[in-house]
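Hi everyone,

Forwarding the result from last night's run.
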Amino acid sequence: MCNADESEPGTFKDRVLMEGDPFSVIEAMTIAGYAIGARTGYLYIRGEYPRALRHLENAITLARGRGLLGPDVLGSGFAFDIEIRRGAGAYICGEETAIFGSIEGQRGEPRSKPPFPVEKGLFGKPTAVNNVETLVNVLPILLMGGPAYAAVGTDQSTGPKLFCLSGGVRRPGLYELPFGATLRDLVEAAGGMPEGRTIQAVLLGGAAGAFVRGDELDIPLTFEGARAAGTTLGSGVVLVLDDTADLVATLVRVAAFFRDESCGQCVPCRVGTVRQEESLLRIRGGGDPESEVALLREVGRAMKDASICGLGQTAWNAVESAIDRLGLFEESETEEAR
């Protein structure tokens, strides 16, 4: 299964891949199907991607006509075909098991694990789930060979990575860099900051990610480098906030997003996302930061420890990093004490 439900705010890498080279997605899914012995591949695409949908539908039709999909792929005796299923705008359906419910005609809600998807997935059958970028990387691995591909990047994070860069840089867009490049390298590739502007903070990993300070641009963009720095690469989102950005308003928007997108299945997430937004709104309205931060920490720990899926487990990340790493409410707390 190809997970093309790219709903993380600020992420658009899979859309660019599907619109620009839909045949690479089809080829990669076919190779993956052959490798695991699957006869059917499902491509679950975000409902807000009409152009990508048209390009994929056209590419699948052409591939079938040329024998690249169907009951006898290229005369090899291998049968494989692809079905496209369109999402309806639910962030939660990007979770690997919630996709199954959506395709099966049920509510898109995460399922308890175990059993894991490779044991019991879509329609109760073993299912391998990967996103568009992961699958498309199958092609250069086969063309270059494993050792040559692994020579790009670092020992633990091999190959290139797509980064969705947005915010205050001169040229926002999609950038491909080898793993190991720094956050500074990425910002400079986009032309740096406009004259007179400085970086206040960078949000790595999207709404479910974490903030780093503007003086931490030498963080290596690798999985291990991000972990060591106390952050995450997530889906490759890099949002640069300059010195004019309102960080409290940004956090309120992140909290509102998670409140809207919680499926409501489990209490920690259903209630916690609402309480988190309410607390941030009170701070923005002039409430006592000290007491509200204490409440935010309590709610955040409950969501992180007890939520069923990654939505609730990561809904507190950006807020926590803004408090602890950026010291967002320290000045307000100091003024309150005075």
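The first strand starts at residue 2 and ends at 4.

Cheers,
N.
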